[in-house]
Amino acid sequence: MGHFLFNFILFIFLLSWTSPLAHSRNTPHNAKTTLLNVVSSIQKTYQVLNFNPNLKQQQKGSSVFSSSSSSHFSMQLHSRASIHQPSHADYKSLTLSRLDLDSVRVNSILTQLDPNFNPEKLSGPIISGTSQGSGEYFSRIGIGEPPSQAYVVLDTGSDISWVQCAPCADCYRQADPIFEPASSASYTPITCKANQCKWLDQSQCHNGNCLYEVSYGDGSYTVGDFVTETVTIGATSVRNIAIGCGHNNEGLFVGAAGLLGLGGGPLSFPAQLNSTSFSYCLVDRDSDLVSTLEFDSPFSRDAVTASLKRNPEMNTFYFVGLVGISVGGVLLPIPETSFMVDSTESGGVIVDSGTAVTRLQSDVYSVVRDAFVRGTRDLPAANDMSLFDTCYDLSSRSSVEVPTVAFHFGEGKVLVLPAKNYLVPVDSVGTFCFAFAPTTSSLSIIGNIQQQGTRVSFDLVNSVIGFSPNSC
Ligand SMILES: *[C@@H]1O[C@H](CO)[C@@H](O)[C@H](O)[C@H]1NC(C)=O
After folding, report:
1. Which keywords does the record carry (predicted)?
2. Which of 59, 126, 143, 452 suits 77 as a labelling partner, its CA being 20 to 30 A distant?
């Protein structure tokens, strides 16, 4: 009997010793609950509708930018809420529009990566009077010599950077004046023979010069001249960056002058800068706080690291080595294969700056959701809303303890999410929903609601992604 007891204790000891859940000092991955500040989340829903452009951002010139050195570029990053007035009467209609746009985004990514994918349904027509455009995060760059300032949407899900260009055959509404090639000394057409033209997925030749076309799968597209220009980032100007000068642009980019492609392909902005790494920190989407997008900055020491993988067939997207998810301090029984790219090159998990709500395979989603629901039985339930099937009425609370949710990467690395990154307000009267959603695809996406307030770093040389909760 004593022998049995000894073996049993040894067994328990070994089990805890070999547990893959070794964690960093500051973030107890096994904390059962995390505090959600309900009042502060609801206050932000009012702020976003009371648009009040931040005066700091009205200044022009390099003084508004963070410091730059020759080895390191940095530029400001803004939420849409801080530069563009939402046209919604209340936070609920803003949420519904954001969730529809998010489905449009996910449909366009998953149809590129997964031929068997069934697109998500939308609750209404996407181009409507209240359409606010896609992309929640913007930076300001200078195009040309002298530089014309332009807000561009940050996008890790595509490679080609572009701005709307005069003369416009078709341009949507934007905040800044349309870029005028004739007023830039550095504007140079790319010839059809150049590599940059050959790397385009869709190109044409006109009088020996290269024309580009990018379609985003959601009905949005841009077509125009493919040119090299000087791009100014913060206080630094970089010559000969291939960008699209879009004369014919249609879509959901309302407010921005164009897009900054941060994907993994050879035409992406980091690739053209020859960057070894880049990172961004996404501020709360409803705040007017300013953060940064950085190139070649050192990795933060406290970063939770994960492997960065590429699919050679689809080098735009950044795949991350997610191996598990825990809820309430307990690692859930999800086979690691649910998160892996299989032998047919399908599945896997991508990190995307433009998708809002993290998508998980339906089976995986059910396991995560059910565990969360088990830990929140004492909270009053509310009706489903759009993508969200797990909602609560927190109108009578000022704060609540909710089960801790954490992403587990290989080698015992654990990213504990703040409660506001997975229990989000959907109106201004206290309805909150669990901000994960199922997908019929085998591919999962880690979205920007879950990335908020975290510096996400892509080490392109060593193939590592870092998540730093305290380095915005
Ligand atoms: C990147 O490297 C290529 C090839 O070495 C070079 O031609 C180009 O000027 C570099 N670009 C920058 C921005 O340093």
Report:
1. Aspartyl protease, DNA-binding, Hydrolase, Protease, Signal
2. 126
